[in-house]
Amino acid sequence: MGLIDTITETLQASSSSTNRGDERGESKGAYWCHDCEERRLDLDVEGDEPPACPACGEAMTFERSPGSTGCAC
Length: 73
Ligand SMILES: [Zn+2]
Known about the structure:
Layout: H1 2-17, E1 29-33, E2 38-41, E3 61-64
Antiparallel strand pairs: 1-2, 1-3
Bound molecules: zinc ion.
The site of zinc ion has 8 residues, from loops.
């Protein structure tokens, strides 16, 4: 019983202290259509299914963000 109480308190403490509204997390990458150079951020896409390109309708491909290197040439 004491152990469960401790865990509950720990969870409540950590969740309340880190509740800053950024629970969506960071973007892990983006979906691309290379033909059209259309891009959609993974955070803007619901679920894990790749979205269709708004320009040509082909399934977009997911690419991980390499980080914040800026240039992807
Ligand atoms: Zn396209």
